[in-house]
Amino acid sequence: MRSELCNRCGSCVGLSGDRIRFGDREGKYLPEIREELSDAEYDRIWNACTGGRFDFPAMRKQIFGDTPGFHTYMGPYQELYIGHALDPGLREAGASGGILSAILIYLLEKGRIDGAVVTRMSRRKPWLTEPVIATSREAILEGAQSKYIITSVNEILGSIAAFEGRLAYVGLPGQVQSVRKLQQAGDRSVKNIKYIFGPFYGNTLHFSSVRSFLRSHGEKDHTRIRKLYFRYGEWPGNMRVEMDSGRIIELKKFHANYLIPFHIVRNSLYCTDFTNEFTDISGGDAWAPVYEERGKGFSLIIARSVAGRDLLKEMEKEGRIDLSPVTEQECIEMHSHGYDFKKRGAFIRTRFRKLLGKDIPDFGYELKGFPFSRIMMELVISTLFLVLGTGAARWMVERFSPEFIGRLFERSRTRWKRSTYRIKRNELG
Ligand SMILES: Cc1cc2nc3c(=O)[nH]c(=O)nc-3n(C[C@H](O)[C@H](O)[C@H](O)COP(=O)(O)OP(=O)(O)OC[C@H]3O[C@@H](n4cnc5c(N)ncnc54)[C@H](O)[C@@H]3O)c2cc1C
User: Fold this and answer.
1) DSSP 280-299
2) DSSP conformation letters of 140-160
3) Pick from 92, 167, 263, 423: CA 20 to 30 A from residue 30's CA?
């Protein structure tokens, strides 16, 4: 909890019967023990924790066995697609192609699940997120779109256990991994979960990012937020804040990315799972000029389990989604910067941590042997994260217009993407 490795998945909170709770959700958002638990209860929670330990190869073997496809960056898969929901409303409501929400709605309508675990913006505090069990199309859509501040889906493990019926579950990699560990242990809290889906995962931000964004626009009180979106409007969408006063503040998603180095949650830097490798189906944005220029919304979809693949094919046949197969190489090139960040950067950053004598995560595998230039590049990136994460740097950036900083950030990102384009051909070690 204090090691910077906590990914806030929420399992400890969800399994503790309210004796562990998240502290200041607008601050560090860390679990706090309010009342001691028994040794057996701690063991159960410790087993579900994925911040410190999760054995990728062993879990992969156990869940998926042999699959037709596997890539160290993307994990195991049956098939790879670019796609989107065919219902235009659904497609627009989603973060990219609306695929994840379309799948949940399809399963619900077919009676294959009775509810879906999704994350929506809180009704009581619309600037924070909250997990819910959605039992209608409307409720699933309320949870659509990506939330880039901390979410702790597994804090509702108690409600999941008490739910009468079958569930689909959507979570980030650390959250999904925790559910997998609980399933492996035969834990009663996850017995209702029949399908697991999830978005790709670059990083999450502290709530300070929202506060800083507001301050840059001259708004001092975040409790005046009426609605907060991270991907509003046509893909890739805008960060949009609607205030009680009626004021609307909007910034292109790519420009709002400038908040990342100032407010990134440190665990994101050590997480090596970019594509949500333990889901039945995972989805990310189809980042490629050919799709980005067309707008509307396209997802890159990885069908990992046989059940996931069959479900996608069935939905395609019934005219619910559009799917076009893509090659492994196209996928790698589309997210080369993401893989570079997670499958190279994270391992190098972890080694830096080890050199400093800090706790490091054990994922049961390690990638190494990167070129010296890449290690030097990481030194620069890590120093930037350290410097830009300070109060002084955050204060400084708020003196500039977010549009200006955003444009600067987007240009740097494009350069980074170009420089990592050929990542697959480079020596991995
Ligand atoms: C924090 C975060 C980081 C991401 N980083 C990348 C990236 O670097 N590259 C990339 O290609 N894609 C990334 N994505 C995924 C991308 O933004 C889309 O979520 C993905 O393309 C699926 O789109 P969709 O339209 O099918 O999903 P939708 O139909 O919009 O459904 C999204 C589902 O995910 C759930 N969800 C949303 N946010 C969260 C959250 N924070 N925690 C738990 N569940 C959540 C929703 O409740 C919903 O059920 C990220 C997503 C998140 C949440």
Assistant:
1) SEEEEE--SHHHHTT-S--E
2) HHHT-S---B---GGGGHHHH
3) 167
Bridge partner residues of 199 (DSSP): 283
* Spacing, Cα 387 to ligand 1 middle (Å): 28
Q: Mind listing the pLDDT tens digit for each residue in 162-198?
A: 999 999 999 999 999 999 999 999 999 999 999 999 9
CA of 172 to the centre of ligand 1 (A): 8
Q: What residue ranges line ligand 1, CB within 6 angstroms?
A: 94-101, 118-119, 143-148, 151, 153, 170-172, 199-202, 204, 283-285, 287, 299, 335, 338
Among protein residues, the one with the nearest Cα to ligand 1's atom 8 is 202
pLDDT tens digit sequence for 247-303: 999 999 999 999 999 999 999 999 999 999 999 999 999 987 777 767 789 999 999
> Which amino acid, residue 59?
M
Count CB-CB contacts under 10 A for residue 261. 19
